[in-house]
Amino acid sequence: MRRDFIKAIFFSAAFMAAATTFAQKKKATQTVKIESPAAGEQTYKVSLGSTVMAIDAGQGARITSFTLGGKEIIGPGGSTFWTSPQDPWGWPPIPEHHDKPYKVTATKNSVEFTSEKDAKLGVVIKKNITANPSDSSFVVSYTITNESGKELKVAPWENTRTKKSSITFYPRGEKEFEQSSPVMSVLKMNDIDGIRWFAYSPDRVTDGNMAKLYADGSEGWIANTDEGLLLVKKFQDTKASERAPGEGEIEIFADTQNPFIEMEQQGAYKTLAPGAKLTWQVKWYLRSLPSNVTKEEGNAQLVKIVRSIVKK
Q1: From 3.40.30.10, 2.70.98.10, 3.40.190.10, 3.90.1200.10, which CATH number describes the 33-310 domain?
Q2: Helix and strand numbers, DSSP H then E, in the chain
């Protein structure tokens, strides 16, 4: 009887090990695919299984779409990259970085986009995009090269537009900073158990039509959820003292007119000597949520899922 019991345990363990190995092999078979645009188009696609990221080389190499099984998480306008702080270039964004075409170099596993040197700061932006089968992430690496011929102080800044129906959340950091824009009011956030939440409603855009949050985060992530999808962006956490002047590690913008929310994060403010480079990496994760996980501020299940993703 005891011998049969031991045999049963042995075969059960062997089955579980085999099943795990099979699952790992199945996951490992997912490969990164790079799809070049059709004639007359400029949109490249990076895919891993049913997750697809689209980048428009003709429009500032913006990430214009990020889908899982055909479902979209990004809002109108896509995701762009700027230098921080904003004061040296004002508004609108520098066209060489934001609007103009980028040169493209595509390989089997990645695609790299390179801007022209801009006329205002003398900076060249590179965006290298690939995917990682081991954690099903999309890896976006930004490089700022100082070609101005003089010393430059700068920080990296990724700005992603999400749907107005979505909820954005991140872990509270050291502080929230004072509103630095003369044309915007302070965005109203909900603080619940160390997590800050934003779900759009007109009353959370105070005093006027536009509002923005400037804050420090912690743990190195920000997330957005809508229509059963969860977008997580993972990056190097920075201290409040490392922010660019008048900016924040975490920024969220909303207004009462446009159909999107801006979900933004920035890296550390650094000095670049002439010819020097700064590289900053953001990992994007897109997941389907279990049907019992609801889209609501303060949902601890959402936070638990995010933390399980970024710790891998």
Answers
A1: 2.70.98.10
A2: 3, 22
